[in-house]
Amino acid sequence: MPAWESVTGFARRRRAENPGPMTLDGTNSYVLGEPAAGSVVIVDPGPLLAEHVGELAASGSVELVLITHRHGDHTAAGARLHELTGAPVRAALPAFCYGAGALADGEVIHAAGLAIQVLATPGHTSDSLCFAVEPAGASPKLMLTGDTILGTGSTVLDHPDGTLKDYLDSLARLRAWAAAQAAPVPVLPGHGPVLPDLDQAAMAYQEHRGERIAQLRAAVERVGTAGEATAEQLVQAVYGQLPPQLQAAALLSVQAQLQYLRVL
Fold it and tell me: Which of 29, 37, 152, 183 has the most CB atoms within 10 Å of its CB?
């Protein structure tokens, strides 16, 4: 996959060179803007890699930088991009904002010829946001989902900050938003490829979580009928033998599910 990719007439994606078990083929940074607007909005500046940040800074007249959530592979370049462009950087948490205030749920931002609606979608982290982007012309809307919905695989819940209840509520909110639209809404995720339909993607995630909850219930009965099962034992019972680099993520997800089920 090339580092730069055109998504639509008003959206481009640059993939950072930080592949790994948690970042898949790299973190996606997005450059948004109507061609006639003369400015761009960057969503998720990404990791602090000189080439990546430099190309984002040179991608147009940067009017604004938005952040989907606090993880370093999405935020580490925020301060540097602010230095290079002077553009304000905004996130849900003030600690990741530069030159402007924090974002609020339901806020609508008008920049680069676009209307960008902020949706609070906690679960992956407590500060996770999605951005619904509406162009001025006839192009379809887009939804940027950060790590709430990925282009492939499933999302890790960063327990205890991220909770399964919040995550399921956020998926339901995204599906309700999608149902109110006139056409399927493409998903621009924080990792992996673009998905064609927000509603279908969120529904698949709901079904996956339901399957995992059922597997965990069965594992609790099988491994710890006396209520003595540890989260580590349940990870092995649910996931089997995992590569070492995935064990920590699986443990977080099991802990989040256990909290949801009020088992431990």
Answer: 29
| 3-state SS, one letter per residue, for the chain | CCCEEEEECCEEEEECCCCECCCECCEEEEEECCCCCCCEEEECCCCCCHHHHHHHHCCCCEEEEECCCCCHHHHCCHHHHHHHHCCCEECCCHHHCECCCCCCCCCEEEECCEEEEEEECCCCCCCCEEEEEEECCCCCCEEEEECCCCCCCCCCCCCCCCCHHHHHHHHHHHHHHHHCCCCCCCEEECECCCECCHHHHHHHHHHHHHHHHHHHHHHHHHHCCCCCCCHHHHHHHHHCCCCHHHHHHHHHHHHHHHHHHCCC
Q: How confident is the model at residue 226 (pLDDT cuts 50, 70, 90)?
A: very low
Token pair belonging to 22: 């948690």
pLDDT of residue 2: 67
pLDDT digits (tens, 9 = 90+) for 71-111: 999 999 999 999 999 999 999 999 999 999 999 999 999 99
Is there a contact between 87 and 81 (Cβ–Cβ < 8 Å)?
Answer: yes
In this prediction, residue 227 carries a pLDDT of: 55
